[in-house]
Amino acid sequence: xxxxxxxxxxxxxxxxxxxxxxxxxxxxxxxxxxxxxxxxxxxxxxxxxxxxxxxxxxxxxxxxxxxxxxxxxxxxxxxxxxxxxxxxxxxxxxxxxxxxxxxxxxxxxxxxxxxxxxxxxxxxxxxxxxxxxxxxxxxxxxxxxxxxxxxxxxxxxxxxxxxxxxxxxxxxxxxxxxxxxxxxxxxxxxxxxxxxxxxxxxxxxxxxxxxxxxxxxxxxxxxxxxxxxxxxxxxxxxxxxxxxxxxxxxxxxxxxxxxxxxxxxxxxxxxxxxxxxxxxxxxxx
Length: 285
Description:
By secondary structure, the protein is of the alpha/beta class. It has helices spanning 22-28, 32-59, 85-94, 117-125, 187-198, 234-239, 245-256, and strands at 79-80, 98-104, 107-112, 134-142, 151-159, 164-172, 177-178, 202-203.
């Protein structure tokens, strides 16, 4: 009874738990607040390093400018050839009928008046210094925008004995140009080909008719205003016969598998393949 009011002695043991001081507990168990502060410090340090790197890059010497793009050198251009010896001889003989002359990469071209082309060709063939005895080619170029003379007939002459070449050019329209078959007989078929594909008329030609296409074919395929896509015309309607069922199936299979069309004679009649449905053939490839 006497011991009830006395405090327990220092050496005595009690049932109450023993707790550590607050400062010691915080030291033993770091709070989440200190961990967040450490992360924030790391983030700020990283930002500082990035900013320093950017500043160092800005202060660095600027890169050398790229060299300017070298312009593509212009190719050769035609030059005036009025002082060429052959041109001088032609002008001395035909005067203003020699319209102009140019030279490109060693190739001499002379433009001649349409009315004097036969005389000029005959003079060049009989020329004592450079006889152009061989007509190597005769062709044409179509310039539809040139309304007055949309066709340019080109004569390529060659001197076998002197190994020289010259090109004659004649501008013409629907009236055509005089035939040079009297000078070079080989011009017969060459002029027929130009007539067939361009429609240029060669006056006094011995037998001016088509040479590649049927006589009653409509149009001239090498004109620039000729349609590129297949167009039904009177010739195909009149001349191409019907396909048999077997031929129709064969060509359909070839078209399905992408095989070469027109590889056998029967398939040359392919324009009549779908006559009933009037299906337009694809463009030529």
